[in-house]
Amino acid sequence: MRSNAAEYDIIAPDSLEEVLAVLASDQRAPIAGGTELMVALGAGRLAQKNFVSLHKLSELRFLDDAEETTLRIGSGTTFTDIRSSDIIATDFPLLSQTASWTGSIANQNRGTLGGNIANASPAADTPPALLAYDAELELISIRGTRTIPYAAFHLGYKRTALAPDELILAVRLPRRFSTHKHWVRKVGTRNAQAIAKIALAAVAKIEDGVFTEIALGAASLRDRPSRLPATEAALLGRNPHDPAALRAARQALAGEVAPIDDIRSTARYRAAVAGNLLEEFLGSLNA
């Protein structure tokens, strides 16, 4: 049954300062692009009734490359903004590619990077790339700003490290991957506008024929977007084309993921495809 819109209340302050004051004093949930919340509204399952809109906040919509070693992306930056950025396409191609997977063009015009992160779906498109790029998050409240590794942000299914009065201010990405290999793959029902059955992102550096760095970010393999540290450790220092390295990595991967059965797929399928994607990534690397 569709929700009755008259039962909901939303306010739209003009500044970040006003929004933070509201969050500190009122039981309102922030709404950015609203692409996920409107689906829940239409399905009659949006339990939260009171919202504060972030849509007007130019303070959250920016790309800041003033720091030579870091790119800061405001949480209000849309997926269209990300796809249009030459800096992101050059330095963080996986983020540019995963932004193109996120819904329709209309969704990309409205949906925001911060909203995609805070929504905390295990199947979200951009988190695997952000995890592989060692992203950090700047969180802000009236108490100040703090920075945490993105890998520590997701605590469980739909649970995050955000305090009730905090917002994601920005995503910080280290600009050190120009000599790395970048690879990402999403498996879904369709080529577009499909929620991931599984996705895997990889950023790696190979020197003298072996992995000297490797980071793997995954969607739909646990109850949250996740790094795969055991699989990374099984490959570090190994030749990507060594069959023994692949066997060890597959074994490590099987031991650290916990996929589920749901309407989109089965746990068995996801576990099998995860191993196949890992093998595909290794096979894509130059011998």
UniProtKB/TrEMBL annotation:
MF GO annotations = FAD binding; oxidoreductase activity
* InterPro entries given in the database record: CO_DH_flav_C, CO_DH_flav_C_dom_sf, Diverse_Substr_Oxidored, FAD-bd_PCMH, FAD-bd_PCMH-like_sf, FAD-bd_PCMH_sub1, FAD-bd_PCMH_sub2, Mopterin_DH_FAD-bd
Domain FAD-binding PCMH-type as annotated: residue spans: 1-178
**Pfam families cross-referenced by the UniProt entry:** CO_deh_flav_C, FAD_binding_5
Name this polypeptide is given: Aerobic-type carbon monoxide dehydrogenase, middle subunit CoxM/CutM-like protein
Gene3D superfamilies for the chain: 3.30.465.10, CO dehydrogenase flavoprotein, C-terminal domain (3.30.390.50), Uridine Diphospho-n-acetylenolpyruvylglucosamine Reductase, domain 2 (3.30.43.10)
Q: Which UniProt keywords apply?
A: FAD, Flavoprotein, Oxidoreductase
